[in-house]
Amino acid sequence: MNQPLVEPMRAFGTTIFAEMSALALTTASINLGQGFPDSDGPPEILDAAVEAIRSGFNQYPPGSGQPTLRHAIAGHQNRFYGVQYDADTEVLVTAGATEAIASALLALTGPGDEVVMFEPYYDSYAACVALSGAQRKVVTLRPTEAGWRYDPEQLERAFTGRTRVVLLNTPHNPTGKVFDRSELEQIAQLARRHDAVVVTDEVYEHLVFDGMHVPMSTLPGMRDRTITISSAGKTFSVTGWKIGWVCAAAPYLNAVRTVKQFLTYVNGGPFQPAVAFGLGLPDEVYAEVREGLRAQRDLLCGGLQRLGFDVITPQATYFATVRLDAGGLEFCQKLPRERRVVAIPSSVFYDSHEGDRLVRFAFCKRPDVLVEALGRLEGVGR
Ligand SMILES: *Cc1c(COP(=O)(O)O)cnc(C)c1O
Hints:
Elements: H1 16-26, E1 30-31, H2 43-54, H3 67-81, E2 91-95, H4 96-108, E3 114-119, H5 123-132, E4 135-140, E5 142-144, E6 147-149, H6 152-158, E7 163-169, H7 181-193, E8 197-201, E9 226-231, H8 232-235, E10 243-247, H9 250-260, H10 271-279, H11 283-306, E11 310-312, E12 319-323, H12 328-339, E13 341-342, E14 344-345, E15 358-362, H13 367-376
Parallel strand pairs: 1-13, 3-4, 3-7, 7-8, 8-9
Antiparallel strand pairs: 2-10, 5-6, 9-10, 11-12, 12-15, 14-15
Helix pairs in contact: 2-10, 3-10, 4-5, 4-9, 11-13
The structure holds pyridoxal-5'-phosphate.
Residues 96-98, 122, 169, 173, 201, 203, 231, 233-234, 239, 242, 244 line the site of pyridoxal-5'-phosphate.
């Protein structure tokens, strides 16, 4: 039989996450591969979803999302960042950040266009750029004494007359980097010079342990050139709910919505009012999720260091990276059978070979699970 898959997608077989999660099951391993928490989010938000199911939020919500949620998202952007969006024309609810990213790339780019993005990158980015027919131009983040950094000249060279979009993820998965203001200013300046749009994935906006999240939309002149994407999954530890959103100036929001309506149309009816309720909760609720994760980060990173690993401690997110002396892929293939722990070789997040010796561990797991995993890794460090 002929290869049924279209050419641009052939490089995207099964994801490493499916492969490693299957291996976790057959070897009874602790899965520190995929980034999902193993405990539920704030109980009052869970109760709000139950309540919504019982009170009739079970049919298609409006195409742009429940009005209460759109207002809550607009309120959230204003409350935390002082950026104002019109809830009716500048906010769109999506099936997770994943659909928002896909819709934005499909809406804005096509054959002949280029997307500037950083490696290592979240796996859906390359696939969505390929689906749109555009080409990716990748700039490398490297671990340095001063944290993960890119070469400003490499970034400058990545922009061409064909650049349509800069796809930025901050706080960044898998490095845990939080882009600082001067880096954002350089990106913004290049975007303006080349008349490109910045699509920012900010799903870890509330999971910053060191430093401060600066949304691209808050930089001078950038609100109307930025498509801001986020999601409830990471903020409230409800990754299975798949409620995400887009905030952008009306012409861009319209473009994204035009594509989005033919992907899922709508999703998550009863979860939408629950997320609206969650977004309005006091700062302490956000802080509780963050501080729980900070403790888990410190537990895993401290433990790995004691085992002799060269750990790059993240400023944010769910993930820590270790630097090995040998290949990360071989290490991760052996680990489940030999130690019953699953981790992800960071090479899967790179186009180049820069990540070949890096391995990503997720720490969004209960402390007892992390302690058990560390026990199983005894003697592996070096
Ligand atoms: C988890 C994650 C997403 C996906 O978010 P959903 O709301 O679950 O679709 C998007 N981007 C990054 C960087 C992530 O880590």
